[in-house]
Specification:
Blueprint: H1 9-26, H2 32-45, E1 54-57, E2 60-63, H3 65-74, E3 79-84, E4 96-103, E5 111-117, H4 130-146, H5 186-199, H6 204-215, H7 225-241, H8 243-251
Helix pairs in contact: 1-2, 3-4, 5-7, 7-8
Length: 261
Amino acid sequence: MRKMFADTRELRILMRQNIRLAKRWAAGQMGAAAIDQLRELTKTFGFSLGRGDFRYLDGGWYVTHAGLLRLSVRSRCDGIRVEQVRHFCDPIIGRWVFKATVYTSQRSKGFVGFGDADPSNVSPLVRGAEMRVAETRAVNRALRKAYGIGLCSVEELGWVSEPAKSPDPSRKSNGFHTSNGSNGNPSRLRDQLCLLIRQYNLDPGLVKAYAAHFCGTETLKDASRDLVESFISHISSSAKEDIDGLICKLNSFSRPPEVKQ
């Protein structure tokens, strides 16, 4: 890899700090190959483990968004442009796609990276923030291309879902809860609808059209929370009891192809 930083006294100090922290945090789980890679990453990019520029997860190193941004500042990045790829976005089910372009200098033609996010590939801790996650992933990928970093970034990692735990009926909450447990959060309602669509392999466009018709609004986003809850409950029971009938109902909302004359 091309070295971006001179082998200075400060860099040697940083390398010793990184190795010391890595051995302390990994508790003997890190092999010689990982230590060698740590040295190379420190020497080449000036990453600091103490500042959170990169992390050791599941036997491998991953760069972080903060580390990439600090690298771009040290490298005097000329600018980053981010734009939404609207054709692939669907706010109703929480799917977002962004395109980021990194300009390393004024003469740079740009390094492009794409990032996507939806409820199926983000942590439950950031559910409802898929748009920001997608933007961050796009910027990370573009920065990694611009500065020749082969490591994946932490923010680009998908989320491995775990079996849902049964709620404890003995525990009570002082917050307001609706009948479907959404706790009044619109993002939770959207997640529930998204899960139903994926679970039963339904057409998102037809589901949205059916939802608007069910709620009596022009579009689903114009419907009240109570109406959306009712629709989710209705489509969930319909899918369980008669999936063929539900698909037939959804197909009735498909637009007939235009006849060219």
